[in-house]
Amino acid sequence: MLPIYSKKTRLKLVIIVIALLIGAASVLYSNFLVSKLSDREKQLIGLYARGLQFTIDTKSDENMVFIYSEIIEANKTIPVILTDAQLNVQSSRNIPFSKNISEKRKQELLRRELEIMKEQHSPIMVDYGGNTKSYIFYKDSAVLSQLRYYPYVQLTVIACFSLMAYFAFSYSRKAEQNRVWVGLAKETAHQLGTPLSSLMAWYEYLKASPTFQNEPIVEELGKDVRRLEIITERFSNIGSVPALKDENILRVTENAISYLRNRVSKKVDFTIKADFPVDTPAKVNIPLFEWVIENICKNAIDAMEGKGSIDVRLSFAGKNKSNVAIDIKDTGKGIPKSKLKDVFLPGYTTKKRGWGLGLALAKRIIENYHQGKLYVKWSELGKGTMFRVMLNR
Q1: Which of 235, 239, 271, 363 could lock onto 189 through a cystine, CB 3.0 to 4.6 A?
Q2: Which domains does the chain possess?
Q3: Cα(278)–Cα(339) distance, rounded to whole angstroms?
Q4: Does the pLDDT at position 349 exceed 50?
């Protein structure tokens, strides 16, 4: 299989370069045609002027009829205005007017067209002799005008197709990533099922055994077994639409922190505080949301190398307090500004061991399943990092 996604940057660059080459070739060729057609129209207007001059000089009625019918009247495309030496309009051709237009309005439109023609082309002078002159003004025909804009239309079409190709590539890549995520999660849940069933049986056996009555280790084992059940449920939920319910967000967050507090270094100090009533609800799926809190906190503990403090603060956010914000701040080594977005990419990790999936999975859970947001609110090298989770109330 071709390594398409591993070389996505190069492929995107190739697409852009090809689009630019096609666009440049189109513009150059179209400009070449426009130049040729413009020269041709200038020659036609010159012929029109010479024909007009000839009709004045000739003495033959037959020649005058030929000039009018074959040269002057044959111009059906190029807008032309004939003026006297003082630039007063004498006649015009190929300038459309409405049927019932007044003479005054017609003269206004002709003067407006005359100004446009002055800007486009220099007039051609017709010398009648005896200090009598006329000027022929003209502008590009409709065909030439359309041809001038044609390359820009073509560039727009090329840009649209390039964007479609880019988004199709990105969508297919994300779709494949989603399939990998779902497949990995389902397989993990399946693999956990067998040893979990065995552990549950052993837990029930130890709990019923007189030898281990009132042993704290048995109770802790029971907690871990229940935790494994929750983890298995989490992996099973990946790929399906989880049920979101109004839950006491402070209590749910406290439960997730409480579980971690007893299973990490004692040199890590946890604090949690809420700036709103203790019974404030938010729409969450408890197993998945607790997974997010755990992943963020575990990354914070790794960043602090097992020593420091993690402060969790809950508050209202958004217009009309429509959201709940959970800020998780650590005293770790911080994240460089250039890496603030990379920390959420699958596979990104600064640790020697690990897959770099924790924060990527947390972001997916919050943004795809909870319609919320997860981002780095603040980070400073040597001082720490603050992640913010935004949820709907």
Answers
A1: 235
A2: 5-144 (no CATH), 241-392 (3.30.565.10)
A3: 35
A4: yes
